Amino acid sequence: MKLNALMDNFGARSSVKRVGRGIGSGMGKTSGRGNKGQKSRSGSRKQATFQGGQMPILRRFPKFGFNNPFAKEYATVNLGDIEKFIASGKIDASAPITIDSLMAAKVINRRKDGLKVLAKGEIKSAVNIVADKWSKSAEAAIVKAGGTIKNK
């Protein structure tokens, strides 16, 4: 094989359709654009969202709300869930309970931006929890059961 002998397969490249080259070509005079109107002019096309001159639907609907791109989303865990997993033996109550141990026990499935402990359910075991955030009632319940909660 020689570099000067390389060529495309037949039909791989088609020539550009030349319009406006006489009536016999089939693409003469108006060049297949029809007569008059916006679509026959050069450089002019309707937008993909154009709706026939009426007010577009995206402009008719009211806009509201705000999505904060910097908001933090925490993986939440309830005290009742922790107690349930301790009772089933998936979490060791004597070791500190961290986001990693909760992921290993499949209590939570994603890290997100940190761990938040909530007070739904009750806890009977004295546990040491390491979290980013917690509710006051969750902290009170953990301390009442003889455990501690601290920031990581």
Features:
12% strand
Describe the structure.
The protein is an alpha/beta fold. The protein has 4 helices and 5 strands; from the N terminus they run αβααβββαβ. The strands form 2 sheets. The chain has a 3-stranded parallel β-sheet. Strands 3-5 form a two-stranded parallel sheet. The longest helix has 10 residues, at 79-88. It is elongated and about 95 Å long.
Topology:
Blueprint: H1 57-60, E1 75-78, H2 79-88, H3 99-104, E2 115-118, E3 128-131, E4 133-134, H4 136-144, E5 148-151
Tell me the overall shape: elongated
**Helical percentage:** 10-25%
Average predicted local confidence, pLDDT? 91
Strand pairing plus helix content: what structural class?
Answer: alpha/beta
- Strands of the biggest beta sheet: in what spatial order? 1-2-4
Please give the largest β-sheet. Answer: 3 strands, parallel
| Beta-strand content estimate | 5-15%
Q: Over the alpha carbons, how many angstroms does the gyration radius reach?
A: 34 Å
One letter per element, helices H and strands E, the order comes to HEHHEEEHE
In whole angstroms, the N-to-C terminal distance is 67 Å
User: What is the number of E strands?
Assistant: 5
